[in-house]
Structures are given as C-alpha cells and as structure tokens.
Amino acid sequence: MVTVGVFEDYGSATKAVDELVLQKVPEEAINVIASAGVSILPEVSDRPDFGKSGGDSAGSTDTLNEKLRGQSVMGIPDAGDVLASGDQAYDIVRHTSGTFDTTASLSQKLTDMGMNGDDAAKVTSFIKNGGLMVWVTDGTKYPAKAAEVFAGFGAAMTKSVSMPLPQEK
What we know:
Elements: E1 2-7, H1 10-22, E2 30-35, H2 63-68, E3 74-76, E4 80-85, H3 87-96, H4 106-112, H5 117-128, E5 132-136, H6 143-152, E6 157-161
Antiparallel strand pairs: 1-5, 1-6, 2-4, 2-5, 3-4
C-alpha cells in the first residue's frame, strides 16, 4: 500500500515533504506530480523568513523546490501541463504525456495503478487546478508516517492505494 497526499497549494505540500525528510524518509522515495502552474518558491536561504523562529520556512529543508526545479514540463490531456519528480511519478507522467500514447490520461493511469476511479478523477482535477500529489514509494515502511504527515500539513485528500511499487534494483 502507498499513502497518497493531495495538496491544493504548494506551501502545504512543501511543508509536508520537508517533514517527511526530517522524519528520515529518503528523498529518492518521495514522488510528486504537480501542476506546472505552481509557483516554485525562491531558494529557502534567500527568503527573508529563513531560519527565523515561527517563520514559514524555519527548519525547512527546501526538498520540494529542489525536486521540481529544472524538471521538464509535460502535457497530459486531462491534467494540463505538469512537473514530475521521483521515478514512479516520472513514469506515470511519461506514459500519459503522449510520449507513448496520445490518448492516455492521468485519471486512467492512476486507476490502472490501483486508485479507485472517482479518487483518480479528483486527484487529476486537483492537479489541473494547481494542486500537487505526493507519495512515498516504499509502501512497506512509510504509509502510516506519510498519512500522519499529510493530514498534519493540510492535505485536501489522503488515500491509501495499492500502487505497485518499483522493483528493487
């Protein structure tokens, strides 16, 4: 099982991703599909509130920015232009961007990977409207931790799904 968190805004998602890293979830296990319309924040150290007690970025690791910065924008028929980071996220987006199938949809790919159809449509709608989908690929170690973090940082939707996990290399 994999716990998926869907966020309506970049700020909440970045705090959740930073918290996952602070809780020792490996960065390479964190996957993100985000609307290309999200505004990636400036470097954390360049922000005026960096490191200040009570500031939004106090203790921030800036992981989400680093994961998305420099990624290629890919167009998906039902979700619009998106960015993807993480092996599994990139694979999902690559297979729905027309590179392999010009009729592919994000909703269908998420359904094929174990998400129920209604939830897949909701996730796709969130992404199309500026949202982000975040999950951790190691479903055996982190689903409870991810669910707690996602809920604690305001995920609009948190779901456990039976996404197949990448094979160990």
